[in-house]
Amino acid sequence: MKKILLSLFAVFSGFLVLHAQSADTLENPGFESWEVPIGLPAAHPEPVNWSGIKTSDNPNVNPMAPVNWARCDTAHSGKYSLRLFNVSALGLVATGTMSNGRYHTEVSSSTSYVFTDTANPLWNTPFTGRPDSLVGWFMCKPLSGDHGNVLAILHTGYAQTPLVNHDSSTWVAKASFDLPNTDVDKWVRFSTPFHYYSDKSPQYILIVLTSGNGAKALAGSSAMFDDLNVVYNNSTGIKDYEKGTLDVFAHNKQLHIGIKNVPRGTCKIRVLNILGRVQVTATLQNGDNKTIDISSLPSGIYLVQAQYGNHILVKKILVH
Amino acid sequence: MGKRHGILYLLAFLFGIVPGIVLGQTGIITGRVVEAGTETSLIGANVYLKSNLSIGTIADYNGFFQLSLPVGNQQVEVSYTGMKSRVFTVLVKKNATLKLKTIQLEPESYTVKELVVRAGKFNKKLEDQTVSIEVMKPKIIQDRNTQNISTILDLTPGVTILDEEPQIRGGSGFTFGVGSKVGVFVDGIPIASADAGKPDWSFIPVENIRQIEVVKGASSVLSGSSSLSGAIYVRMNYPGLKPHTYVNTYVGTYTAPNKIAEKWWTGLAPVAGIAFSHSQRLGDGYTDLVLGGNFSYGHNYQGPPKVIPPIVDSSGFTNSKMANRLLRFNFNLRRRSKKTAGLNFGINGNFMRQKKATVMAWLDDTAGFYRGYPGAILANDQFIFYVDPFINYYSKSGAKHAFISRIMYSDSKANLDQSNKWMTIYNKYEVRKQFKKVGNVDLVSGVVSDYNHSVANMYVGSGSDTNYLWNLSWYAEVEKKYGKVANLSFGIRIEYFNLNGTIKKVKPIFRFGSSFHVGIATYLRASIGMGYRFPTIAERFIRTKVGTFGVFDNPHLQPESSWNAEVGIKQAFKLSKFKGYADVAFFYQEYKNTIEYLFGFWDSTYTFAYAGFKFVNTGPSRITGVDFSLMGQAAFSKHVTLNVMAGYTYVHPVALEPDLVFAHDYNPGGKTAFSYNTTSVNPSSHILKYRFLHTAKLDLELDFNRFAVGTSMRYFSKIVNLDKAIFDFEDVTLAAGGTMQAILYRNYYYHHNNGNMIWDVRVSYDLSKSSKISVLSNNVTNKMYSLRPLKAEPPRTITIRYSLNL
Fold it and tell me: Are B319 and B303 in contact (CB under 8 A)?
């Protein structure tokens, strides 16, 4: 949540400035700036430009909503990172979550959502670029069967997620990354592509970070996030295939692979070294997640290739 | 002739010789018992042989009696409720009839012990009762400077007042007083509120009480619905021969709280009051008048909330708004007809205006122990009254006809959407008669109409803010004495309930009781009885909310029922200079459909309120236990006496089907199945919620010359089990991270709640025959304690009292 002073500034001067600039970066993506919004005690600051379920638009729920985030001194870079955790209250599990938009909270998760409030700069982040990927760093400690998520929606006008009482017609692109459902106790980079639905230029970006899997979240799961960013150029020079999603990351000599949005059928996975030599192979189905032991591979840069039919998805990873 | 004469001889032999054996050692005394001054017959006065209480009789319609006694010098005692007993020594001669002079009984003073109770349907001596009854006499009520009878009831063996809610032998849990499972009666008429069945203890005119009788065990047959686990009868005073004026004034203060709790007030926290009663006979001596009044101010020991931002308390309570102010006036007017013997009629009335603040939960378990939780203080400005017209007629055939009526009205303005108006119209006709020809059978039968009308926004769960509950019942009880040793009684009651014309129910219930005189002063009793309680308007139809939390209606709530069996033995004894009786009772009770007040997500759409409380029928339960009491007096000399009242109760209250799912809510995280196990903090114990397994009570008073020193003790063991919602609230409010005041109980429950023993002390000095000055201290050790979860009990008080009996 933004400070009142900031909002005044936005209304009287900054608003024009923001519109004059091309907005193609995220606000406070490293969670370095924190503030205590009105209505919250000093012990529970929120990251500047971000808000949680205790600063939602429902004043009836806000006071009793559990604190499910914390400022964390363990950072990937800088001083702080954001820690989210799932909390149980009265038999309900409140998923740890933080957004640059605003929450509409109800006791039932089926009627709760996050939205970009276009009318109030406190609750929106202008963004006009068309980046290729959303990247960032995370650690996580999910309970078995649970996992966190990073979601970014580029859109025009009003948008909400999940779609409770609005459609996705304003969406321009979406990037989503599921955190693994195993413990990750060192900072690991994730990269997930934006899938574009139209040629329009977006006006806003809505980002939602969670430590649990929505309505299926389990109390006790936690996740940490730091140094979010958007990437405009594919640094490998190989363009990701836009029709499918290949999520890859390596941690502790374990290669985590997930594949989504591809047609039914077997998908061949190949891990190539930088010389193009196949090091490891595996097979996956759409929606599968797999962990492959790569302890035999020397540290270095590798390409992970997923082939289905005539299509190939490629991701570059760094194995420590 | 021979044959016929033979039969006559045989008859003469049988009637002459056999009686000769029995009556050969006996003679007869006859006499009449009247009230001194008015010469009114004392119908039903007890006349018995002091040395053998099994030999006795009662006076008839005109006060006459006849009693067969062993020959020789005999001591005969004559007693009557409210009169000073008299003992005569008579010389009984063999086969002779001794006609005694008219025996005049005088009204007793406050200090005379009274052992005749009416809590059973018959005016009988305590030892002849077939149920367990405790009697609290005016002396202890006055000596303890009782301002509210709940404090004296709390001292009664087997009775616990849990934050104003009566519990008898662990027969009920805690539901904020709504739907009391113990009937409370003043002069035989219920005093519970029409809407919620909640007794208001402060409304009972304590300055004018003759005695309090507590019946333990299911008493619905005798006392009607609501007396599921027992009944409390308060009997008011009537004037004696001489005018009597009683004035009681007191002033005192709460002392600073002990240990870590904050003293939220500055200086003293005064409590002060003045009460009076005056009784006398008017004019020709046939009109009785009693007037009484009470004005009191009580600085609350529980203060307003104090919150740390960003928590907001918008309730607006200040220190002065927490005070309790009470003004009460009562009268009893009775005319005994001169023209028609045996007829008396009159009207009783009681009016009260009270402003008070009731704290439902503490601010926290340490510094804020004696402060209220924001939004959990109920401010109430109430005007309430009743008027009771009545007619009693003793017919010449020996029947007593009584018609009593009560109109009770309350208008209460309160915060938290709790304002309400209600009215009760109660009518009862009762006849009682003794049938001597069929072997001394007593019969009592009556018809009761109890109409309760309520107008309150909070009861819109019925579809309207106006609701009524009409209870019509018929009852009858017969009691028969078999010789001098057995006394059997059987009762039936048929209840009809009509709620708003839509919900109707008929229920017959029964009881059977017996008492046996098994030794010179040993009385055995056994009884079995049913209990039945129809839910009140509040329990079914309450629908209100505070913030996002609500209280939800449950129109489908079913009546509670119980049955109760007990065996008891009462032993009067004399041990050196100590005279008294000990009583032990073993009891077994079973309850069905017990109503609990449970938290859940009761609204399927979460539109009225997200979550809240609802009255819900729960699974079956059983309570077994033993109740022991001892009362007596040791007279060391004419001027030194020791009065003792002690009691110990053990209950074992268990859920019989702890897995039984009795309700589901609409928890968005998945419907919660409500059972004993899922709603309990300590389900493995199977122990019911909010029960004290061990309670002990003691009151000792030593009178020596003009001084009296007394002490009272109450012990409550730790509550074994309570509603899990309390811990859930703690978790939720703590997880909120400081935007809600934390509801804290877990730490107190596990570390500071290992049973509580509370001591009160008192010292008094008789300034003259009629005036007395006393110093009293309740909770003298200044124990910081809680009985009902989240409710702070008072810290130490010190009071100076001056009383005048003229």
Answer: yes
